[in-house]
Amino acid sequence: TTTAALIVAAGRGVRAGGDVAKQWRTLAGKTVLGHTVAAFARHPGIDRIVLVLHPDDLHRWTDSAVTVVTGGADRQASVRRGLDAVTEDRVLIHDAARPLVSAAVIDRVIAALDHAPGAAPAVAVTDALWRGDTQVTGVQDRAGLFRAQTPQGFRTDAIRAAHAAHGGAAADDVAVARAAGLDVSIVRGDEDNLKITHAEDFARAERLLGAGMD
Ligand code: CTP
Ligand code: MG
């Protein structure tokens, strides 16, 4: 069995702001994307990395050890472009904006794919959940609710077919998979596997990356 990592990095990072898109910002001596790619490059279970970049960013990536393709207008389009370049049996689809993904999380996703067509990391919701606007109008039971992370792993043929069949927007690749009826196992995620979304997330990521360096 062969496994590819598909890293989507073609977004513009509008919510995070700044002069360059968030994946190109430097954290603890390396770009966010550099950290993300390295996490998969050093993992023995990953045979190839497919990196999806914005057409304007192609000049920024110079490492020839990865397969580079250009992305599309939204995340789903970028994933589809990336999937076209995957020839491995399995694919782990990951956000470039999650540079703190651990080897243990990658291990768990890969291991679960022995038993299911899809597997993805998540953490159980521990905060109370409210409905409302300026006032609380209701309280949502949090039992059985998870916060989804990436990498989300799939048998490549299955997720490719699911994307081809999917119309409209989807929250992530698990949503696309579920719409196609694929079973997706939940594996234990990691609180530190944050997605850099807003400007304030850089400080937390930098702290965690700095702490993890030898
Ligand atoms: N992504 C992509 N192609 C797009 C949009 C998003 O490859 N057209 C990637 C981003 O680069 C990111 C991941 O999908 O690694 C998760 O998306 P998100 O966190 O929303 O990043 P952005 O879309 O860049 O940020 P924003 O929504 O704030 O503009
Ligand atoms: Mg986005």
UniProtKB/TrEMBL annotation:
Bifunctional enzyme that catalyzes the formation of 4-diphosphocytidyl-2-C-methyl-D-erythritol from CTP and 2-C-methyl-D-erythritol 4-phosphate (MEP) (IspD), and catalyzes the conversion of 4-diphosphocytidyl-2-C-methyl-D-erythritol 2-phosphate (CDP-ME2P) to 2-C-methyl-D-erythritol 2,4-cyclodiphosphate (ME-CPP) with a corresponding release of cytidine 5-monophosphate (CMP) (IspF). GO terms for molecular function: 2-C-methyl-D-erythritol 2,4-cyclodiphosphate synthase activity; 2-C-methyl-D-erythritol 4-phosphate cytidylyltransferase activity; metal ion binding. Belongs to the IspF family. The record marks R142, K195 as: Positions MEP for the nucleophilic attack. Keywords: Isoprene biosynthesis, Lyase, Metal-binding, Multifunctional enzyme, Nucleotidyltransferase, Transferase. Its EC number is 2.7.7.60, 4.6.1.12. Pathway: Isoprenoid biosynthesis; isopentenyl diphosphate biosynthesis via DXP pathway; isopentenyl diphosphate from 1-deoxy-D-xylulose 5-phosphate: step 2/6; Isoprenoid biosynthesis; isopentenyl diphosphate biosynthesis via DXP pathway; isopentenyl diphosphate from 1-deoxy-D-xylulose 5-phosphate: step 4/6. The gene is ispDF. Residues 1-214 are annotated as: 2-C-methyl-D-erythritol 4-phosphate cytidylyltransferase. One of its GO terms (biological process) is terpenoid biosynthetic process. This is Bifunctional enzyme IspD/IspF. It catalyses: 2-C-methyl-D-erythritol 4-phosphate + CTP + H(+) = 4-CDP-2-C-methyl-D-erythritol + diphosphate; 4-CDP-2-C-methyl-D-erythritol 2-phosphate = 2-C-methyl-D-erythritol 2,4-cyclic diphosphate + CMP. Its cofactor is a divalent metal cation. The record marks R15, K22 as: Transition state stabilizer.
